[in-house]
Amino acid sequence: MVDLAIETRGLTRRFGAQSAVSQIDLAVPQGSVFGFLGPNGSGKTTTIRMLLGLIEPTAGESLVLGESMPRSWRSVLPRVGALVEGPAFAPYLSGTANLMRFDAADRDSDRRTRRTRVEAALARVGLSPAAGKPVKAYSLGMKQRLGLANALLRPRELLVLDEPTNGLDPQGTREVRSLIRSFAADGTTVFVSSHLLAEVEQLCSHVAVMSAGSLVAQGTLDEMRGPDATTVAVLTPDTDAAQSVLRALGLTPVSVALDHGGHRITAAIDRSRVEVDSLVASLVAGGVRVRGFTLEEPTLEDRFVALTGEGFDVVA
Amino acid sequence: MSSPEPGIRRRRLVGVDLVGSELAVLFRRRRSIAMLVAIALIPILLAVAVALSTRSLEPGQGPPFLDSVTQNGLFVGFAAMIVGIPLFLPLTVGVVAGDTIAGEAAHGTLRYLLVAPAGRVRLLLVKYVGTVAWSLAAAFTLMLSGAIIGSLLFPVGPVTLLSGDVIDVPEALLRSLLVAVYVSVSLMGLSAIGLFISTLTDVPVGAMAATVIVSVVSQILDALPQLEWLHPYLLTHYWLDFADLLRNPIEWSSFGSNALLQLAYIAVFGSLAYGRFASKSILS
Q1: Could you say which of B6, B30, B111 has the minimum Cβ distance to residue A54?
Q2: Which helix (H) or strand (E) element contains residue A83?
Q3: Which among A126, A188, A118, A196 is positioned nearest to A153, based on CA atoms?
Q4: By Cβ atoms counted within 10 A, which residue in A23, B111, B125, B279 is the most buried?
Q5: Is the CB of B117 less than 8 angstroms away from the CB of A113?
Q6: Which residues are CB-neighbours of A12 under 8 A, at least 6 positions away?
Q7: Which chain A residues have a beta carbon less than 8 Å from that of B279?
Q8: Does B121 lie at the interface with A, CB-CB under 8 angstroms?
Q9: Across the interface, which of A150, A154, A155 has its CB nearest the CB of B112?
Q10: Do residue A49 and residue B282 have CB atoms under 8 angstroms apart?
């Protein structure tokens, strides 16, 4: 049994008659980089707010770092760094002054090391040159980094990052990704919410998917991708010959005529039963002229759309 | 002291750093400085107007103490306090107290303070301490500015009190400080109301306006003779009675009644603020 950094049982929050989050059972293993996915409005931020004690659940319970939230906030929250629904700062204060203020807010933080820790956190996100400027002069990307720096004022056991790359340019996104990897390398559990699937796919070891307030799937990244959904695609002018070769191997090919001549034949393939590497040889031996051959791995996006549906449905 | 982890000293009971941080933020803010400057301008405007005027006031004409200003500069502070207490000082208290929680909510910093974690009760207390510090700063700024401009423009000497007794200059300055304390205390109940209103909304301007309206309505009710039974319970009832500190011997009863009344308002609205904020869903 793996120790869990976050565990919820039947966690539910209703606003009036509407359930923002209903009956979710999260299990975030310690040391994982856990991607918390879902379309906008699916209840991700409400869940995060409950985990951090900002709102009370209507029902259910949550354990963060082994202790009950919100009851044990005093011992839990100092060990958690958080970025919740975008960064927020007093615009008239400098970056440094804002971080000093948040650090002073915790009665257990050490005044003697405060300035050093603030400077180190600013350096880690590359904001040292702008540390003295008022936050209102910051770009969105700089505020996002300052928000990350705030989460890093101390060594943390858990980082809860809500949309950490929101508003960042491609370089900034890469930097945040490498920062998250470095936190994970230190043994910190990172809980990242995002709707950017490619990002989650590159970063995370585990994934959970929210849809309309419910947790629809949860597991390791490989489990989520699905084991048997690899597809082969063959480009050829000899569609009949190719299809019969594939059928002989136990596949069910589908042929589509291409505009510029020839056909594209696709078939789902169970890699434990069919030897992929010998497929082309079999096709050629069957007299098929192979113009192209590709193996298509399922993406998280396919799985995500399958779970949460197409389009922009907001639950009313 | 050994630290279990870098940056953490466990088991502190209160942790005063947040108070220091709150006061530093409050008093370094441009808005606060502008309001203190405006407060300091009240006695300056008043003194300059009197000094430039060729018409001398009959005794008893104009606001209390104004007729005495030309004979003794030390009266400038008292006259300015009479002018400032009904609207201008409560206005600044409304801005500061109304901003406490709603202002943090509007900036989104409330969630980060709570996640830090500041603790809800502790944050509320720290915010209230900030408003108390503001009341003191506002009253003392006005008094100090009055004493300075009064001594520059008018003669300064022994002060003839309302009771007819004469006190010397150091004694008169001491009485000025007492008046400033009286006015600060007068504003503390309103601060508690402002703090409570501030927990109800994420729109600071709304909380500020509502707080100022409370003080204005209270003064209107206090002026209606038909509601005489209500008057001793009104927040603003004793606001102008600081003049009792300018008698010999000092008439302490209004100071005491005022302090008790303000304490009652602090208790009631402090509890309401706690009741609201301790369980509030932070959605900002």
Answers
A1: B111
A2: strand A80-83
A3: A118
A4: B111
A5: no
A6: A19, A21, A22, A23, A24, A57, A58, A59, A60
A7: 56
A8: no
A9: A150
A10: yes
Q: Residue B231 region, left (φ>0) first, then alpha (ψ -120 to 50), else beta?
A: alpha
Q: What is the CA radius of gyration of chain B?
A: 21
pLDDT digits (tens, 9 = 90+) for B221-257: 999 999 999 999 999 999 988 888 888 888 899 999 9
Which among B51, B74, B94 has a CA at the least distance from the CA of B145?
B74
Chain B residues within an 8 Å CB radius of A105 = 18, 21, 113, 116-118, 123
Query: A273 burial class (0-12, 13-18, 19+ CB within 10 angstroms)?
Result: exposed
B101 contacts chain A (CB < 8 A): no
In the structure encoding, which two tokens stand for residue B15, read together? 């942790």
B111 touches chain A (CB under 8 A): yes
The tokens for B51 are: 């000094």
The complex's ipTM works out to 0.86
| pLDDT tens digits, A27-84 | 999 999 999 988 888 889 999 999 999 999 999 999 999 999 888 898 999 999 999 9
At A237, the amino acid letter reads P
Is residue A262 a contact partner of residue A237, using CB atoms and an 8 Å limit? yes
Q: Which of B41, B90, B88, B45 is nearest to B69 (CA)?
A: B45
d(CA B270, CA B121): 10
Question: A171: exposed, middle or buried (C-beta count within 10 Å: 0-12, 13-18, 19+)?
Answer: exposed
Query: Is A104's CB within 8 Å of B283's CB?
Result: no
Find, in chain B, the residue whose alpha carbon is nearest to that of A112.
B7
| Longest CA–CA separation in chain A, Å | 78
Chain A residues with beta carbon closer than 8 angstroms to that of B10: 108
Radius of gyration of chain A, Cα coordinates, nearest whole angstrom: 24
